[in-house]
Amino acid sequence: MKRSALAVRPLLLGGLVTMTMLAAPQAVAIDPAQVHVRTTAVKGSDLPRITAKAVLSQPPDKVWKILSDCSKYKGRMPRIISARLLKKEGNKHTCETTVEVPFPFSNLTAVTEAIHEESPEKLSRKWKLVKGDFKRNEGSWEIKPVDGGKKSEVTYTLHVEPNTALPASIIEAAQKKAVPDLFVRLEQEAAKL
Q1: Which residue among 41, 154, 171, 173 sits deepest, i.e. has the most Cβ atoms within 10 Å of its Cβ?
Q2: What gap in Å lies between CA 170 and CA 188, rounded to an integer?
Q3: What domain range includes position 72?
């Protein structure tokens, strides 16, 4: 029996965002509904920029350990099947990651260059595409201490355009669903440290 195009699309949607669905349910302090997600139109692009923000129950140093080490994304971030640090020069990190995309589509690989900034007020990682299976792949993570440093206010921005033939509305819907789940996973991984 053939899968219809409508049956295949939901499978692909879960894999298009660099970091998507949960690996396994665990007890966490954040509910996906507590993640505030908004979209902003980007001139010259069919896809919007996604911005998400939430307060995680983990301190900034633990969250930063997860986000700042791209070589360990495979074990820590959803749907990442390959991740490695290619080069580090000062605060510039060049990373290669591959996102698993459901059959019958090909996995997506990107080489990105990220600038890390660390201060007591804020930790940030801002990346841009160098090459890969995307027209665009740029974004950032920003972590600020709250509640005397016991918790973290985390802001995530993402603007991606994968080289696929799917309509922008479908890709956007997938991103909106996956981003809150990403925050849950981030908190779970930080709690393990």
Answers
A1: 154
A2: 28
A3: 5-192
